[in-house]
Design brief:
CATH superfamily of the largest domain: Alpha/Beta hydrolase fold, catalytic domain
Number of strands: 11
Strand order of the largest sheet: 1-2-3-5-4-6-7-10-11
Distance between the termini: 37 Å
Order of helices and strands: HEEEEEHEHEHHHEEHHEHEHH
Shape: globular
Structural class: alpha/beta
Helix content: 25-40%
Largest sheet: 9 strands, mixed
Mean pLDDT: 91
Length: 351
C-alpha cells in the first residue's frame, strides 16, 4: 500500500486544506538548523470520523540528515528542545544538543504537538490518530522513512501504533515506559482523575479540577520510595487542619499544570491512553522496549508480554529508579546510554 493511500482525504471533507504556515522558518543563522510550523489536514479519526485538524510540528537538524521522530507524554509538545535564543528549554532538553545522545548535528529530530493538546478538538481521540498525524507531517516534509521512532510514555504508545499502521515508514521503534495496551490498574486511576476534572467543571472550578487530577497523576508518575525520601516528616496542624509534608509539592505541580492545560485537553488525551490498543502481531518493526521497576502505569511485565508476541526482533531493558514512570525525565545519564545504544549506527554512530 502506498503512503499516499493511507492518508487519502475522507469523503466527508470536501477538499484538502492546503498549506503549512511556519512560525519559525528554516534559517541557517539559527544556533542549529531548525524550523517550526503548522499543517492543516482533513483526517479520518478512529472514533470521530472525518475532521479538519491542525498539526503543529518542529524539526531540528539539517534536512539531509537521517530522521528520528521523538515523542513524549501527554503533557509534552513539539518542543523536544528549544530553537530560539532565550526560548524556554524543551521537555527533553537534557538529551538534545551537540555531543548529546540526540545530536541535531547528526540527525533530524521531528516532533509534533498532540492532537487535542490545545483543547480545541473535543472528540474522542486515539493513539492511531496521533500516529497518522505524524505520518502526515512526514509526508509534508518529504520524508519517506525515519530511522527510529523514540517515544516515551504516551509517545511510546503512539510509536507502537505508528509501527503497526505505517510499517514502511520506520526502521526501528524505541518504546520507553509504554506498551501495546494500557494496564487496567492505570486505567482505573485515570478514570478517577477524569471524574475529578468533570466535578470541577460542574462546580465552575475548571482549574481546581485539573490541578487535583494532576496531583493524583503525580502519585502514579513517581514512586512511594521517592516520597519516603523527600517527604518523611510528620504532618503539622495549620489551625484545625492537618497538612502532610507532600502537599505543597503536589499543589505547586497541580497549579503549574492547570495554568497550561484546559479540562478538555486533559480529558481527551487521558481517554486516548485508555482507548489505546495495538495488536502485537501487527508489529514487524524491530523494538527496543525500556521499562522501570515499580512503574504502575507501564509495568515491565507488559513490555515482556509485548516482546514475546511481536513478529520482529524485540529486546527489553528494565531500569531501577526511584522516579518510576518519570525516570526518562530524571535519569539523564542512564537514558543517554540507552539512547546512544538504540541509535547506534544512525547519523554516523553514537558519540
Amino acid at each position: 500500500m502506498s503512503f499516499a493511500s493511507t492518508l487519502a482525504y475522507p469523503d466527508a471533507c470536501v477538499a484538502p486544506v492546503a498549506g503549512a504556515v511556519a512560525d519559525v522558518p528554516y534559517d541557517d543563522a539559527l544556533p542549529l538548523a531548525a524550523e517550526r510550523g503548522e499543517l492543516t489536514r482533513c483526517m479520518r479519526l478512529r472514533h470521530a470520523g472525518a475532521r479538519v485538524v491542525d498539526v503543529a510540528w518542529q524539526r531540528l537538524g539539517d534536512r539531509h540528515l537521517p530522521v528520528l521522530v521523538v515523542a513524549g507524554g501527554i503533557s509534552a509538545d513539539r518542543r523536544v528542545a528549544g530553537i530560539l535564543p532565550g526560548e524556554p528549554s524543551g521537555w527533553w532538553q537534557a538529551q538534545v544538543g551537540e555531543g548529546r545522545a540526540l545530536d541535531p548535528c547528526r540527525v533530524q529530530i521531528v516532533s509534533i504537538d498532540w492532537l487535542g493538546g490545545d483543547g480545541n478538538l473535543d472528540v474522542p481521540l486515539d493513539t492511531a490518530d496521533q500516529a497518522d498525524a505524524i505520518a502526515a507531517v512526514l509526508e509534508h516534509l518529504g520524508i519517506d522513512c525515519i530511522e527510529a521512532f523514540i517515544g516515551c510514555s504516551y509517545g511510546a504508545q503512539v510509536g507502537l501504533q505508528f509501527a503497526a499502521r505505517h510499517p514502511q515508514r520506520v526502521r526501528r521503534v524505541v518504546a520507553i515506559a509504554g506498551a501495546h495496551r494500557p494496564h487496567p490498574y492505570a486505567s482505573a486511576l485515570r478514570a478517577l482523575q477524569r471524574q475529578v476534572v468533570a466535578l470541577g467543571q460542574l462546580q465552575c472550578a475548571d482549574e481546581l479540577g485539573v490541578s487535583i487530577a494532576r496531583q493524583l497523576a503525580m502519585l502514579t508518575y513517581r514512586t512511594p520510595e521517592e516520597f519516603a525520601q523527600r517527604f518523611d516528616a510528620p504532618a503539622v496542624l495549620e489551625g484545625a487542619r492537618a497538612r502532610c509534608a507532600a502537599e505543597d509539592y503536589l499543589a505547586v505541580q497541580g497549579a503549574r499544570y492547570a495554568q497550561r492545560w484546559s479540562p478538555t485537553a486533559f480529558l481527551r488525551l487521558s481517554e486516548s491512553i485508555d482507548l489505546h490498543r495495538v495488536d502485537p502481531d501487527a508489529i514487524a518493526t524491530p523494538l527496543a522496549l525500556v521499562g522501570v521497576e515499580g512503574d504502575r502505569l507501564a509495568p515491565p511485565e507488559d513490555l515482556y508480554a509485548l516482546a514475546e508476541a511481536v513478529r520482529a526482533p524485540a529486546r527489553v531493558q528494565v531500569l531501577r529508579s526511584v522516579y518510576g514512570h518519570d525516570a526518562f525525565l530524571k535519569e539523564h545519564a542512564a537514558f543517554d546510554v540507552i539512547l546512544r545504544d538504540a541509535c547506534a549506527g544512525i547519523g554516523g554512530g553514537a558519540a
